[in-house]
Write a structure and sequence with these properties.
Layout (H helix, E strand, L loop, with lengths): L3 H16 L6 H13 L9 H4 L7 H12 L5 H17 L5 H16 L5 H21 L1
Protein name: Tellurite resistance protein TerB
InterPro entries: TerB-like (IPR029024)
Length: about 140
């Protein structure tokens, strides 16, 4: 059974990731609203101000949410869910901002700082990071 607060934290991270480059793209906005709707959080009083861009989310807040989401002993599944969700958002607008790539780099660093992470997953994180770096290089 999926923990409701865990799902809510994931949606908050996605909103933060969308804001991380300073603005929400139209494609990101649509993606976020679809996710919030699907998770039953579109009208959540905590989520709504960020979802409808009434309140911007600063990058450091997004990173705090990531740490809260992962907790002290993140599982392989926690990292996979987070990376999969963030990747979906980041690619929704067809471009990867430097700040978005930095978020994934930070996720990789976080994963390295936790001994509970399995080696195969570190490889996955590295592959994703390389993908983003290539994407960023192509954009510049």
């Amino acid at each position: 059974m999926v923990n409701h607060s865990h799902v809510k934290n994931l949606v908050k991270i996605l909103i933060g990731a969308a804001w991380i480059d300073g603005r929400i793209q139209p494609e990101e906005r649509q993606y976020l609203r679809e996710i919030a709707q699907a998770k039953g959080l579109a009208n959540d009083p905590e989520i709504k101000p960020w979802l409808y861009e009434l309140v911007p989310v600063k990058p450091n807040r997004c990173y705090e949410w990531v740490k809260d989401y992962l907790g002290d002993r993140p599982s392989l599944e926690d990292y996979e869910n987070l990376i999969e969700a963030i990747s979906g958002l980041i690619y929704s607008d067809g471009e990867v901002a430097i700040e978005e790539a930095r978020l994934l780099t930070t996720l990789e660093e976080l994963s390295k700082s936790h001994e509970s992470i399995q080696p195969g997953h570190v490889t996955l994180l590295r592959q994703i990071q390389k993908l983003y770096r290539r994407w960023v290089d192509v954009q510049n």
